[in-house]
Amino acid sequence: MVYTGQLWQGYWESLKEVARIGLKHGWEIEILTNAHGQKVAGSDFSNVRARDFLPEDELVPYLQQNADALVVALPFGKEAADLMRTMFSSKMVEYTLTDRSTIILAPPHAEMARWGREAGCFLVLDSLEPALLEKKLVEFMGNPEIRKEMGTRAKELGERLFAPERAKEQVMRAWKGEKRLG
């Protein structure tokens, strides 16, 4: 599994739950992050390896070659509740442009959880209850066919929503004053 991003307060606490389960089941977790994140994640689990972020042009090929699943882990704490209602994780742009499945670990009220459920091509885990989380992760990681299918559907979604040419076209329409951007 691969996680890319900062490990701000609350993010690591959520990702630790995945790492703890992964340790029991032999799953490696790679975290692409900054120096602070490497320090945070560095010593808690033998199955977690933290390293520097990759340049943008190297990220998608790296994920395609090295990840059996991608992880978005968001904070569940009350201090982040308002932020989670409106935040969309920008890493979904790169994640959906791979053909890898994505696990979204987010509280039920989070925009990412809502979007992931509606898209129907992500595993959305909206509880940190250990037994439930482990059951769902074990089922998901033990089923490569489902992961492949979800990754393929997520890539199709990413190409529709986040394709650079489509974004450029929308910007040009807006610049020309056209009202319809979709």
Summarize the structure.
With 182 residues, this protein is of the alpha/beta class. It has helices at 11-25, 35-41, 56-66, 81-86, 91-96, 111-119, 130-141, 144-162, 164-175, and strands spanning 2-4, 29-33, 48-52, 70-73, 102-105, 123-125. The protein starts with a strand and ends in a 7-residue tail after the last helix.
Q: What's the helix and strand layout?
A:
Blueprint: E1 2-4, H1 11-25, E2 29-33, H2 35-41, E3 48-52, H3 56-66, E4 70-73, H4 81-86, H5 91-96, E5 102-105, H6 111-119, E6 123-125, H7 130-141, H8 144-162, H9 164-175
Parallel strand pairs: 1-2, 1-4, 2-3, 4-5, 5-6
Question: Overview of this structure, please?
Answer:
- This protein has 182 residues and is α/β, with parallel strands linked by helices.
- It has helices at residues 11-25, 35-41, 56-66, 81-86, 91-96, 111-119, 130-141, 144-162, 164-175; strands at residues 2-4, 29-33, 48-52, 70-73, 102-105, 123-125.
- Strands 3-2-1-4-5-6 form a six-stranded parallel beta sheet, with helices on both faces.
- α2 links the parallel β2 and β3.
- The longest helix is centred in the last third of the chain and has 19 residues, at 144-162.
- It is globular and about 55 Å long.
- The protein starts with a strand and ends in a 7-residue tail after the last helix.
- 36% of the residues are buried.
